Amino acid sequence: MMIFLIITLHLVSGPVGCFDVIGYSGGSIKIYCQHHLYGSNDKYICEIKQNQCVTKIVTQGQKRWNQKERFSLCDYYGYNFIGQLEMILRPLSLQDAGSYQCGETGGWNHTVNLTVIRDPCCLGPKTVTGYLGMTVTISCSYPEEFEKKTKYLYKLQREHFTSVIRTSETQKGRFSISDDRSSKVLSVRISDVREDDGGVYYCGVWSHGMLVSYESLFTEIQLQVTDFSVIISVSVCVALLLIGGSAMIVYQRRHKQTRGSTSSLNSGNKENKAISHSASDYEEIRDTRAAPLYSMVQLPAGLSDHPNNVYTTTW
């Protein structure tokens, strides 16, 4: 009876696989769960804790895409009822490490062991500035375990990651890529930069499996696109303001010095005038004292012809 129950549960739940996935703190992880028994039931991602699977996100019924906090889930299907459940978790933290399960309610499921690593090479995000019509280079270091893997540059567009170029292509339109394995640096050059080139990019690797595949996006780069002519105009305005300010300061200083000299000169002239005026007054006083004073005393009538008349002169 017990054996029959175990077999029944296995047939209901489907085959169970366990797959290892590696992510980096501050980056993102994109996990693909393949399934061949596509149905209309809800698809889910849950985290296994203490023998229980705690639901993180679910796609319900005809809704094949859903987002909840840092999780997003999308269900694709193609020919022959082959489907693919895509889960994105970003940004990753060390606390996200653990076991997860992707599956369909009452159907298939796969178990994924997620390891989150903190590596100095992959700390981000970082910002790069590009100028319209010019060339910009996006560079990111990668961990040693990815040395021989194919590297990708992805662009985040409406919660979906689009592959821009990979190391096996070298050149793709305006994008070119190079991988320096000695220094473990991935570089992507974008020529003739356009406004729509701006956005969020990720450097990452692809690890392919039969039932579970994943993309580990380890470095986030924010590309800001700016018009270079605007930068030149702003620089010219700043330079003119600085020149004008400096000229104003020099003018004010010279004006103060000139005003001080004029005040000193005027003060000297006033003193000279005061001295000259005093000297003039002194001369006038001297002249006044030097001039003789005559006082005529008129005697009574009848005495003027007297031979003994006396005239007094006063000095």
What does this structure look like?
By secondary structure, the protein is of the alpha+beta class. Among the domains are: 17-117, Immunoglobulin-like; 120-206 and 215-226, Sandwich (Immunoglobulin-like), CATH 2.60.40. The chain is 24% helix and 41% strand. It contains 2 helices and 18 strands. The chain has helices spanning 2-13, 228-290, and strands spanning 18-24, 28-35, 43-49, 52-59, 65-68, 71-77, 83-89, 98-104, 109-117, 126-131, 136-141, 151-157, 160-166, 171-172, 175-180, 185-190, 199-207, 212-226. The strands form 3 sheets. Strands 2, 5, 6, 7, 10, 12, 13, 17 and 18 form a 9-stranded mixed sheet that branches. A 5-stranded mixed sheet has the order 1-9-8-3-4, with no helix packed on it. Strand 8 and strand 9 (109-117) form a beta hairpin. It is elongated.
Number of helices: 2
Write down the oligomeric state.
Answer: single chain
CATH class of one domain equals Mainly Beta
CATH domain topology of one domain: Immunoglobulin-like
Mean pLDDT: 78
Overall spatial form:
elongated
Instruction: Please provide the ordered H/E string of secondary-structure elements.
Output: HEEEEEEEEEEEEEEEEEEH
> In percent terms, what proportion of residues is strand?
35-45%
Architecture (CATH level 2) name of one domain: Sandwich
Helix content: 10-25%
Main location: membrane
InterPro entries: CD300_family_receptors, Ig-like_dom_sf, Ig-like_fold, Ig_sub, Ig_V-set
GO cellular component, one term: plasma membrane
Protein name: Immunoglobulin domain-containing protein
